Amino acid sequence: MSDRLLVLVRHGQSDWNLKNLFTGWKDPDLTEQGIAEAKAAGRKLKEQGLSFDVAFTSALTRAQHTLKLMLDEIGQPGLPTTRNLALNERDYGDLSGLNKDDARKKWGEDQVLIWRRSYDVPPPGGESLKDTLARTLPYYVQEIQPLVLQGKRVLVAAHGNSLRALIMVLEKLTPEQILKRELATGAPVIYRLNADSTVATKLDLAA
């Protein structure tokens, strides 16, 4: 039986996560804690006896760095990897680079909460979660899912909101349910898929 293995990992803590800034498509690297989280994720996957045939990541440094650190821990440096901005974090537009508390002062707590937690209301110049789904899902369906269904073992290192898009489809969640779904940094979620692309098993390695 083929594995049909898909592992999703949100990048480790970034410098802007630490500073409570809206990050989006901005490109800070990992903090020391983020580096430790990425290495720990790799060790967890190795402890599960997992290795991979191919990897995918975004066009952003924090996700690429997380992937590299995980692959080093697994013992698979140099694994064939595709980088694509379809897997980038949600674009926060005018909020990008702002401290979340400062944004609340400028636009009001209620408005910022709507931008952060609604499904289809984008911040000024940015993307809603619905917009992010519209970018990420076609890429998953066209590029990633077919490899998994062929029996390839696929590792994806990306971002909270781009991974939510994949999880929404995999777990058949509603817009309301996906908004409540939190993804810990550096915590692998391991799926094995049925031949029809539905989820056979799921294992969440969040600490």
Helix content: 40-55%
Whole-number mean pLDDT: 95
Q: Can you name the CATH architecture?
A: 3-Layer(aba) Sandwich
Tally of separate helices: 8
Morphology:
globular
Widest beta sheet: strand line-up: 3-2-4-1-5-6
Briefly note the structural class of the backbone: alpha/beta
Separation, N- and C-terminal Cα atoms: 30 Å
Could you tell me the CATH topology label. Rossmann fold
How do the helices and strands follow one another from N- to C-terminus?
EHHEHEHHHEHHEE
Strand proportion, as a percent range, falls in 5-15%
Top CATH class: Alpha Beta
Q: In CATH, what is the homologous superfamily?
A: Phosphoglycerate mutase-like
Return Rg in Å.
17 Å
Give the tally of β-strands.
6
How many strands, what sense, and barrel or not for the largest sheet?
A: 6 strands, mixed
The unreliable regions are none
Number of domains: 1
Describe what is shown at a glance.
By secondary structure, the chain is α/β, with parallel strands linked by helices. It has eight helices and six strands.
Fill in the keyword field for this structure.
six-stranded mixed β-sheet, Rossmann fold, alpha/beta, 8 helices, 207 residues
Structure report:
It is a single chain. With 207 residues, this protein is α/β, with parallel strands linked by helices. It has a single domain (5-91, 137-204), classed as 3-Layer(aba) Sandwich (Rossmann fold). It is 43% helix and 14% strand. The chain contains eight helices and six strands; from the N terminus they run βααβαβαααβααββ. It has a six-stranded mixed β-sheet with strand order 3-2-4-1-5-6. Strand 5 and strand 6 form a beta hairpin. Helix 2 packs across helix 3 (61-74), helix 4 packs across helix 5 and helix 6 (129-149) packs across helix 7. The radius of gyration is 17 Å and the shape is globular. The relative contact order is 0.22.
